[in-house]
Amino acid sequence: MVAPIKMVTQDKKPTDDRVIMGIDPGTNIMGYAFIGVNGNRARLIAMGVIDLRKCKDTYMKLGEIFNRVQGLIASFLPDELAVEAPFFGKNVQSMLKLGRAQGVAIAAAISRQVPIHEYAPLKIKMAITGNGSASKEQVAEMLRRMLNISSEEMPQFMDATDALGAAFCHYIQRGKPVGNKKYSSWADFAKKNPDKIT
After folding, report:
1. Which CATH superfamily is domain 6-196 in?
2. Which one of 51, 64, 84, 162 is the catalytic residue?
3. Range in 94-98, 112-116, 134-138 with the lowest mean pLDDT
4. Per-residue 3-state assignment (H helix, E strand, C coil) for 16-61
């Protein structure tokens, strides 16, 4: 039996120009997030995780990922998907498992005709913090501030904020900075707008 989706949601607004879905692939915990874009502003719609730890069969997990991602797409109707590319580490088996999970999530999006964009972890960290070596905690805190998310709404699992990072990175890459000014990163935004950092 697979654990239910753990989710933080804010009110939906029909005024969003587009909705971006983010996914952080995983075979035990898969993070997801949705942001709404309205003009030059982005806001959190939902984020959470798909907890697959109770499912022991590898192939059943992949099937569950496919079904859950399709279900999320049907619920939130994203216009685009931003997915974090698996990080190439020393463990080839882990890389293979992550690649499978990512591939199944992508296949679910393709089956719903959602355009896909892939970003390396380094690019996501650079886009959000201006530092490719930033920790997951630093990325999560920057996202919390930029999207005005309360500390109580922040999820237990960093997989959810990793997915939010992928979605927000895509938002930045699409040339939608906050306000009329141009910024090289959110660290640059924070430096030039100290009054907007809470």
Report:
1. Ribonuclease H-like superfamily/Ribonuclease H (3.30.420.10)
2. 84
3. 94-98
4. CCEEEEEEECCCCEEEEEEEEEECCEEEEEEEEEEECCCCCCHHHH
75 neighbors 15 (Cβ within 8 angstroms): no
Residue 16's pLDDT is: 78
Cβ burial, residue 15 (10 Å; 0-12/13-18/19+): exposed
Q: Which of 16, 24, 51, 162 is catalytic?
A: 24
**One of 51, 80, 159, 162 is an active-site residue; which one?**
159
- Average pLDDT, integer, range 103-127: 95
pLDDT category of residue 92 using cuts at 50, 70 and 90: confident
Instruction: Determine whether 84 is an active site residue.
Output: yes
| Residue ranges covered by each domain of the chain | 6-196
Per the annotation, the verdict on 159 as an active-site residue is yes
Residue pair 53/29 in contact (Cβ under 8 Å)? The answer is yes
pTM assigned to the model: 0.81
